[in-house]
Structure formats: structure tokens, C-alpha cells
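Usage example:
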Amino acid sequence: MDILKQRIIDSAEVLPGNVLKVDSFLNHQIDVELVSKLGAEWYERFKNEGITKILTIESAGIGIACLTAQYFKVPVVYAKKSRGVTVGNDYHTTKVVSYTHGQVYDVIISKNAISKDDKVLIIDDFLANGSAIKVLIHIAEMGGATVAGAGVAIEKAYLGGGKDIRAMGYRIESLVKIKSINSKTITFDE
Amino acid sequence: MDILKQRIIDSAEVLPGNVLKVDSFLNHQIDVELVSKLGAEWYERFKNEGITKILTIESAGIGIACLTAQYFKVPVVYAKKSRGVTVGNDYHTTKVVSYTHGQVYDVIISKNAISKDDKVLIIDDFLANGSAIKVLIHIAEMGGATVAGAGVAIEKAYLGGGKDIRAMGYRIESLVKIKSINSKTITFDE
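Running the assembly step on the lines above writes:
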């Protein structure tokens, strides 16, 4: 998607460890007009899938998910991360390792938020090693829902998470794929 | 605001400790159509203020802020909570105590995200003791910005946070005010 690629070229920074910093337009600061266009694009790609819920995980996915959900006219559910808090029987719970921070989180979702009648579109900012998307697939399926696929803004294709998840049979629509990041050069997968 | 009040009556739960649980429509699960109407209401109230940024804090404020920002046609900035992570010189940092969890968080915002030319509208889901709104005012002003006011969905008026902040000279537009919560009865401040 050219407008997102151009914005990455213009405004993203590469930090040590090849962290791609997009906090001037995608997370931290959100260019709402740009992100709404990403939502319109995912709507074009998934509009015939009978989506009933947009599912994401806090925090970076929430704004993107809300701006996307407006096109589908469905609610957003965001899974919460918590550490060591007892949540009782009202929640599906699982675990995820943060790619950025290396910490293990509990991921929770209310049993009321997802049902077997739901067809879920997962939305997130990044797909790196795929752990966040995998945990969202897992927790949606714990709730009995069907996963129609995932829309991610930026896929770090060289990390293989997207390849894994596609091999599991899930559809992923990433709007920009990055082939490699070396020092300060970002190479896109066309 | 009647549609929000009615939704609270229909769908909110009161948990022990008088926690008002609105996670079926305002946080966790977000009724995007309802929240967009809250955004339209804040736009009506602040549209002549020259707002340049919507400011909130992760996580619950992000979706509400993004849906509101569409009316103002300005970006969202969400302050991040972190614990013990060194963020260096690129961020304004301060601290907040969570009303719900009692924990102390560092609150950070990129120095690039807020400038002295900004006129900021703060948006959040709840105003309880006011600590989140106060910290957002403080961090916006650390960045040199002017605070036009705050829009909150639900003000727990009996906790006094709103009264404090208004006494400091800031404008707060809460869409529903709660006068008291006793066991399972919610009384609204008309």
C-alpha cells in the first residue's frame, strides 16, 4: 500500500536492534486520517467475509481497530495484557511473549466478548514473529469464534511469523511487507 | 448525554468496591458507533477552540480518542505507561497512581509529539479521582502546549476529581455524571 510505504520512508526511524519506530504516525501519535485509509483497505479485502467483530490486543492495535471497525459496522474487542492478576472464570486466558520487551504476559478476554457465532477479523500494527497474532487466533478460537483472517499494517517478512501463520491456513493481509532492515536501510518486499 | 446514560443503565455492572464495569461497550469491547457519537458531542462543545491534538493515555482512552479525532481532523497522541524502563532524553516523563490498580506508573510522551504550538483536548473514558487527567494536563504543559480542556465519558462526581480540576481553571466536559453508586444502584447527577 503506497501511502503507508511512503510514510514509512518519510517518517519511520530504525533503532538499534532493527526496531522500526513508527510512533509519529502509527502508534503513540496516530495519524487518524492515514489509519482510517488502512481500515478502508482491509474493508475492501474482507468485506464479503461476514465479519462480526474486530479483535486486537492493547495498546497499539486499539486505535487502528476502532478506525477499521467503522467500515465493517461491528464492535472492537481488545484483549488485555495483565500480569499475575486473578481474573476468575469470566475470562478466557492465555499467554504471550512480547517481541519488543521479552516479557511474558497473560492475555485475557471476557467470555461475553466472543461467541461461537462470531466471525473475527484480527487487526494489529505489526506482524513480527507472529506471537501476538497467534495468541489472538488462539483466544478467539477458545471462545468458539471463527477467524476470518488478520490485517496487519506492517509485516516484518524476514522474521517468518507471517509465513508460519499462513502455513497454519490463516489469511493475513499485510499492507506493507518489509524484506530486510539493515542499519538504516529499509528494503520492501514488493 | 442520554444515549450513554441509557447504555450504562442497560449494560454496566457494579462490582465490589463500586467499580463501574463498562467493558461491554466502552472498554475491552467498544461499541464504535456509540463512541463515535460521544466524539461528535465533544466536537460540538470544543469545535471553536482551535484544537490541534487529541491527548489520551493507554489503553482505554485510545479508541475513544481516535473516534473523536476524526471530527477535529487532528492526530491522536496517547501517553504510554511504563515501569522502570529508561526512555532517555527524547521523552517528557512523569508519574501517576492507577485508581483501579493502586500501582505507580511512569507516564511518558515523546518530545516530538507535543509542542508549544499545540492546543490539546484531553479525552478519557473515566474521571474518578482525576489523577489520569491531571497527569495528562501536566505532561501536555511540560511540552509547552495549551490545554483547551478535557472530555470524559463518565465522571464519578462523588470522588471529587472533576471538582478539583475545574477549580484549577480547566474546562471538563463529562457526558454522564454519576452522583453515587451504592451496592447495585447507580444515581446520576442530572
